[in-house]
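ARCHIVE RECORD
Type: protein–small molecule complex
Small molecule: FE2/S2 (inorganic) cluster
Source of inputs: curated submission
Record status: active
Notes field left blank by submitter.
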Amino acid sequence: MPTLEIDGQRIEVPDGLTVIQAAERLGIEIPHYCWHPGLSIAGNCRMCLVEIEKNPKLQIACNTRVADGMVVRTTSDKTKAAQRAVLEFLLINHPIDCPVCDQAGECKLQEYYMDYDRQRSRFPLPAKVRKKKAIPIGPLVMLDQERCILCARCTRFLDEVTHTSELAIYERGDHCEIELAPGKVLDNPYSGNVVDICPVGALTSRDFRFRARVWYLERAESVCGACANGCNIEIYHREGRIFRFQPRQNLAVNQYWMCDAGRLSYRDLQGEGRLTHPLVRGEDEFVPSTWASAIGQVVGRLGDLAREHGPGAVGIVVSAHAPNEEVFLLRCFGAALGARVAAVSWSPPGAFHDDFLVKADKNPNTEGLRRQGLAPDGAVDELLQAASTGQLQALVLHRMDPTAWLDVAAVRPALERVPCLVVLDTVRREASEYADVVLPIATYAECDGTFTNHAGRVQRFHAAVAPPGEARPGWFVLGELVSRLTGGGPYEGAEAVFAALAEECAAFRGLGYATLGSEGRLAARAGA
Ligand code: SF4
Ligand code: SF4
Ligand code: FES
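STRUCTURE (tokenized, with ligand):
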């Protein structure tokens, strides 16, 4: 393993690493535009020029492999002069758009100008080459040719990752421009990633642009819940509102990317129809209730029915949208009631999937159900059948509505006939209209928890925003139900619930929020 020195610090690194990567390991940032760890090396922007002893010329750090005894200087006068020169060159034809550019606040031209340049332009404004602006090049992406610094990250992504090649660089010299290939539109399932990797404001998101200045937004680490892949994401939010999802690096799951459907799925988390108060059925209609009263009624009625009619009188259906913590508590709840617990993992027939990230299973936690011994095996149909023939005294539906995949007419007898129907959900759906008690719970963007992805990787998500109205995290509501029924103490938080799950279930043994870190850990194969 070669040992080299960068800015006076010695480091031993694996053979084949580039200088930019070695510097990164030392916490030294070498400015760069075209280099991206998920793409081939283009070496075209020259922003990463550094001084390397015994080399007559400066070298680009992104395409220079480390060698034993190498001495690198990233802050020498020669390096600084090169950084200033490259920035001046890149800015010659760059428009003065910062006040109206959606990239402001996360633009590498702005940042590097402040860090490495800070000189007045020597180029008269009228002499700048004008190019086309605000061109919609696909459903998600807007192109501003003037702002492009021709780093070719976008074209490499489309050539190397999606293999769709919608964009290319045309013309020569200072007339070079990014343009759609003839007859093409930037409309592939991963098109939004080009916005993330464009270091400047040349490619902006048609969904996000002009909705918020990024410096006002806060971020929370999370996991996309729109399919079983569990791509790692960051939720950008402000004052209780989610503005965008962006991918977060996890080489074992999604590398640096996410799909467009997942990217836009934040809309489903704050759409219409959210349940905001516990509801209890009055004479005809629902009456808003307090949590204490609604929980008291659920525990009282289900407890009475279970005692009166014995094991199997209560049925619980848990969906693969429930986090691991809620699945665990539902199992505890079911055990205390002697209930039959069935799991469901439903996806629209023919749902899009590919051999890259997107899975046909549109549920984030099907594997989590399996690892807790709840295979989605059709037992829900038996429960609904039992409810419709009067053999079930109570039914609890958790984060699901059977009318999503069954005809309403087929489900209605079960929902109407069962003496007690309890629904825990985020939104008001068909099934909640038949409920005796409706308990409003948080989406995964509003609470802490974990999902287990298709490969068995247990991954954490963090609360980004507060649940609306009186809605509460699912682990909290279920924890209350369990503790009221069993007399145990309430759980202090999602972490405590996970710790109890890890103690009880072999698949999660040895795992905890601290050990999961930000990239998750694989669960064991064993069931509960
Ligand atoms: S549009 Fe952005 S990513 Fe593409 S070449 Fe220009 S600056 Fe680079
Ligand atoms: S592939 Fe699945 S988990 Fe990843 S972003 Fe898309 S929908 Fe979300
Ligand atoms: S980052 Fe090295 S040349 Fe662009």
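CURATOR ANNOTATION: The radius of gyration is 28 Å.
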